[in-house]
């Protein structure tokens, strides 16, 4: 009430945020802090030029969201809060250090389907792409932005197809730049999978996208989630085009089938990986020429192994 009575006075808002922050470590205060997110973001929007207030507000929101996730509480922030966060992104789009924190906040917010949809509605996708282009070398920003893109594309109702299509070159550039960084590559693979699911690729995209995903699998073979999401992304590409299936078979760096075998044996105890590999192979055998090649590479032996390993799945 103290903050709401004096929106225009920056010092009141700053003191209010500082006082709310003092309750963060008190577990009994958590349910009340949950109700303060709109007040905090409105204060940030009202005093958008004050970087100090933006930083303190962002830190407090991160603390609240972290506690919410730890306690299994999903915070579905409304459209007004999403709009306030977008204003902050636009005002401070060149401040790399602050954006790194803000993009982490957006990633946590977008874990909620409702919040992700609200971020999409206020038009945040072009801003995310601009940030990625500007700070392509910043692994923390790339990780967070790709995770947000994944959430937005998965909840997409196809209203922003053209906007999403423009995300493909940027997401590919992120994966290319951070191929050896497993955490970022995993996030970028997930984003590429979402874009493929939404049909955001053209004929000329299938081969390079497949080659890039295979590179990510080769560079990070030990990361089960990356392998799973990378294979699901490849399956989505193959479903759309035989070109992608042929790209997997004829990749210049080695047979994609041999890579699939290696990944399966590396993650023998991971049913999610086995399922993604089976889905990919199932899409590939839809093409006669590809199926003949797979047969010559003894893929049936691998399938029998998987069937024996997971007889009840």
Automatic annotation (TrEMBL):
Keyword field: ATP-binding, Kinase, Nucleotide-binding, Serine/threonine-protein kinase, Transferase
GO MF annotation: an example: ATP binding
Gene3D superfamilies: Leucine-rich Repeat Variant (1.25.10.10)
Catalytic activity as recorded in UniProt: L-seryl-[protein] + ATP = O-phospho-L-seryl-[protein] + ADP + H(+); L-threonyl-[protein] + ATP = O-phospho-L-threonyl-[protein] + ADP + H(+)
E.C. numbers: 2.7.11.1
ATP-binding in keyword set: yes
PANTHER family reported for this sequence: SERINE/THREONINE PROTEIN KINASE, SERINE_THREONINE KINASE LIKE DOMAIN CONTAINING 1
Name of this protein: Serine/threonine kinase-like domain-containing protein STKLD1
The species this protein was found in: Pycnonotus jocosus
Signal peptide start and end residues: none
Database matches in InterPro entries: ARM-like, ARM-type_fold
């Amino acid at each position: 009430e103290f903050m709401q009575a004096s929106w225009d006075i920056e010092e009141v808002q700053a003191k209010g945020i500082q006082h709310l922050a003092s309750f963060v470590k008190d577990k009994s205060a958590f349910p009340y802090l949950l109700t303060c997110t709109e007040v905090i973001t409105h204060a940030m929007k009202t005093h958008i030029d004050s970087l100090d207030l933006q930083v303190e507000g962002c830190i407090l929101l991160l603390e609240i969201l972290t506690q919410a996730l730890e306690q299994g509480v999903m915070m579905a922030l409304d459209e007004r809060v999403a709009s306030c966060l977008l204003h902050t992104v636009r005002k401070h789009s060149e401040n790399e250090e602050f954006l790194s924190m803000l993009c982490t906040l957006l990633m946590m917010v977008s874990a909620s389907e409702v919040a992700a949809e609200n971020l999409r509605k206020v038009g945040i996708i072009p801003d995310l792409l601009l940030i990625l282009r500007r700070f392509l070398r910043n692994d923390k920003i790339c990780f967070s932005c790709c995770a947000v893109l994944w959430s937005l594309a998965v909840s997409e109702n196809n209203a922003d197809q053209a906007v999403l299509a423009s995300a493909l070159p940027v997401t590919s550039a992120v994966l290319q730049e951070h191929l050896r960084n497993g955490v970022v590559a995993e996030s970028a693979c997930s984003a590429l999978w979402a874009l493929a699911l939404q049909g955001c690729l053209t004929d000329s995209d299938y081969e390079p996208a497949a080659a890039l995903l295979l590179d990510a699998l080769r560079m990070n073979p030990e990361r089960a989630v990356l392998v799973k999401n990378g294979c699901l992304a490849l399956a989505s590409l193959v479903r759309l085009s035989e070109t992608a299936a042929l790209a997997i078979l004829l990749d210049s760096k080695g047979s994609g089938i041999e890579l699939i075998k290696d990944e399966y044996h590396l993650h023998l105890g991971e049913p999610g990986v086995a399922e993604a590999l089976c889905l990919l192979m199932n899409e590939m055998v839809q093409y006669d020429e590809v199926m003949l090649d797979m047969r010559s590479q003894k893929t049936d032996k691998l399938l029998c192994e998987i069937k024996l390993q997971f007889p009840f799945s």
